[in-house]
Write a structure and sequence with these properties.
Blueprint lengths: L10 E2 L6 E2 L17 E3 L6 E4 L5 E3 L7 H21 L3 H8 L5
Antiparallel strand pairs: 1-2, 3-4, 4-5
């Protein structure tokens, strides 16, 4: 099985507890996230940031610039529209069936 090119490390969303195994830097989707990069939880759409140990932590949206905030709004809108059309992503559906997400 081919490894996800956006694999960083397995972690859980600090807001909702959803298991995450990949991440994309919203402003540079072809680049692997690094320390300080932002990401968005696919389950609860919370904005996250990688700390120096590459562990996800809650991001303070007040510290983000206008370009980052605009991009986050677009991603959240796309995730919401996609979920309304297709339902939640398979990983989210499986965890909800098992009652694993808060």
């Amino acid at each position: 099985m081919e490894q996800n090119p956006n694999f960083v490390r397995e972690d859980t969303c600090p807001a909702c507890g959803h298991h995450l195994d990949s991440a994309t830097e919203p402003l540079q989707p072809l680049e692997r996230p690094g320390w300080g990069s932002i990401s968005i939880c696919i389950n609860c759409k919370t904005v996250l940031r990688f700390n120096p140990a590459m562990k996800l932590q809650l991001a303070d949206e007040h510290e983000l610039d206008a370009e980052q905030l605009a991009h986050i709004r677009k991603i959240r809108t796309a995730l919401t529209i996609n979920e309304k059309i297709h339902g939640p992503p398979p990983s989210v559906r499986a965890r909800r069936r098992r009652g694993m997400d808060r």
